[in-house]
Design brief:
This protein is of the alpha+beta class. It has 3 domains: about 90 residues, Ribosomal Protein S5, domain 2, CATH 3.30.230; about 40 residues, no CATH class; about 140 residues. Helix content is about 60%, strand content about 15%.
Length: about 290
């Protein structure tokens, strides 16, 4: 599921910005970008994110901004001046004429840079956790809104599946009768006049009726539909459970398709397969 959340907080002379985003993925693929100094916080950040998301390609970005970036540094002029003075005094004691040039000044100034130090991981942890939690709540709210829209779509598609199964249930008892009529018609066209009560005809019809009987599959499908609808109405994670139920529905539909030698049922089975595939694609993204 897609989602986005953002939160900011003051952290010393810096501003901490946390952004959480996700796109569809069947499993949880988590990436975290944060200052090198906070690398030790990564496991705790991952644990917190997993309390809000169990699926999706989720990216968490922690950024520090301020008057200067966390990596920028400035010269410490006082320290450079003292270093230059000490070097001059040392040269004088050694009897060496000291005439510093631009290159020497550059070297001393670079050696005395004063960095804008990033707060330590321990000092930042509480603020990072609080800010990340705020971003994750916004992120989760956006995913929840998408989930509500998907839920409505699932109920609509589930109702369509149910209608197709009822078409099959209505048609299935008529299939042996239709087969008998077609069998007798073909026999007459072939010049083989057999009585309807002929043992060979009755045996053939009985075998066909047994092979194309889908009553058990229909019963199981109705049960699976009830479970799927109940799951959609339940609280908590539904993604992986739904995948299992849809897999079982698909198995029963395939069995009906292979057993029922009838055009009407074949069309309904094809429609069921197409709709199931659409549901599976969506369910793979929800939690």
């Amino acid at each position: 599921m897609t989602g986005y959340g953002r939160a900011t907080a003051a952290l010393g002379r810096f501003t901490l910005t946390v952004q959480v985003s996700s796109v569809n993925r069947k499993t949880l693929d988590l990436t975290i970008a944060l200052p090198d100094e906070w690398e030790s916080l990564e496991p705790a950040i991952g644990t917190l994110v997993r309390t809000f998301a169990s699926r999706g390609k989720v990216h968490v970005d922690l950024e520090l901004t301020g008057e200067r970036s966390a990596t920028e540094s400035t010269w410490d002029e006082e320290a450079a001046r003292e270093a230059l003075q000490r070097l001059g005094n040392f040269a004088e004691r050694q009897g060496i004429e000291f005439k510093p040039g631009a290159e020497l000044l550059w070297q001393i100034a670079n050696s005395q840079r004063r960095s804008n130090e990033v707060p330590s991981a321990d000092a930042a942890q509480a603020i990072v956790t609080e800010t990340l939690t705020s971003a994750l709540r916004e992120f989760a709210a956006m995913r929840a809104r998408e989930g509500e829209a998907l839920l409505v779509d699932f109920f609509r598609r589930a109702e369509h599946l149910h209608r197709q199964v009822e078409i099959i249930a209505t048609r299935a008892p008529q299939v042996p009768t239709h087969y008998r009529e077609q069998l007798l018609k073909r026999l007459r066209e072939a010049g083989l006049e057999l009585d309807l009560n002929d043992e060979r005809v009755l045996r053939e019809i009985a075998l066909f009726a047994d092979r194309c009987d889908v009553a058990e599959e229909i019963t199981r499908l109705r049960s699976h539909f009830e479970q799927f609808s109940a799951l959609l109405r339940s609280e908590g994670e539904i993604g992986r459970k739904s995948e299992f139920i849809l897999q079982e529905i698909g198995r029963e539909v395939n069995t009906i398709g292979s057993k029922a030698n009838d055009l009407t049922i074949a069309r309904a089975v094809l429609d069921l397969k197409n709709e199931l595939e659409r549901i599976r694609e969506q369910v793979a993204n929800v939690e």
